[in-house]
Design brief:
single chain, about 280 residues, disordered C terminus, mainly alpha
């Protein structure tokens, strides 16, 4: 059951990302993020109807931090997606979950996974003659840092706030944070009916549905096992990018994704036995 929740979230978020790229010409990455998060927040608030007062100051702090992380992760990832292919962006972003697993591990053999991941990232690094955008790479790595924090903080919020109430409140806070950027980039086009329909689809597929599935999965799975499943993200993203967006990958980029997949599965598998952090 929990494994199915994770895989469903993986497929949903990558299909949603593919839909999101169709909005970049009209409202830009910032406007797309605003639509995604705002629609997701409305849906989650309607479903969970969270109380505004939380049980403790610590829970409130975690929810606020969760909202900041959601805003930063989405803005940096969509800005990267505007510059580099989906499969490569997700592969670079995956340094976040990989870093969480490695930090939780104390096994010398995990240096093998570090070396594999480093090799994959080096293959994806912009080189003379490459058309891979350097700023796009940097933004994807920044999104990865936010993703690593997201894994930890979402588990903490799920442990101290019942149901999806914490996620709904955090998503609402994230929408407020991205509002200035979204309006500046999207302007009046944000109110176009076609843009709104696609934005609603993106909000459901990329935020409301997968984040809810992941939050429930993290209640049932250790973070290490969750991470092993999430290591499928780069492969799913590359497949969606190829099938849905016609984004071909060079042989060097395919090898790089394979390196990161192997490193992620290995390192995150080593973390399976680690106990979850205290909330």
């Amino acid at each position: 059951m929990a494994v199915g929740l994770v895989f469903g979230g993986i497929v949903s978020v990558q299909v949603g990302a593919a839909f999101a790229t169709t909005l970049f010409d009209e409202v830009g990455p910032g406007g797309t993020v605003l639509l995604r998060i705002a629609f997701a927040a409305v849906l989650l608030l309607a479903i969970w109807r969270p109380a505004l007062r939380l049980a403790s100051r610590g829970a409130a702090r975690d929810v606020v931090l969760f909202g900041v992380v959601l805003a930063g992760m989405n803005l940096s990832f969509y800005a990267a997606l505007d510059r580099i292919p989906l499969g490569i962006a997700v592969t670079l972003e995956f340094v976040g979950p990989l870093g969480v697993a490695i930090l939780r591990s104390r096994r010398p053999r995990d240096l093998i996974w570090v070396a594999l991941a480093a090799g994959g990232l080096l293959l994806l690094s912009p080189v003379p003659g490459s058309d891979l955008d350097a700023l796009g790479v940097a933004l994807a790595l920044l999104a990865g840092a936010f993703w690593g924090v997201y894994i930890v903080i979402s588990a903490r919020v799920g442990a101290v706030v019942p149901g999806g109430a914490g996620l709904a409140l955090a998503m609402t806070g994230a929408a407020v944070l991205v509002l200035p950027v979204g309006v500046a980039e999207g302007g009046a086009d944000l109110l176009d009916p076609e843009v709104l329909v696609i934005g609603l689809a993106v909000g459901i597929l990329s935020s409301a549905l997968p984040y809810s599935l992941e939050l429930e999965a993290l209640r049932r799975l250790p973070q290490g096992v969750f991470g092993v499943m999430m290591s499928l993200e780069p492969a799913v993203a590359a497949t969606v990018g190829f099938v849905g967006l016609g984004q071909d990958l060079a042989a060097r980029e395919v090898v790089a994704i394979a390196f990161v997949l192997a490193a992620s599965a290995g390192a995150l598998g080593s973390a399976r036995g680690a106990p979850p952090p205290e909330a």
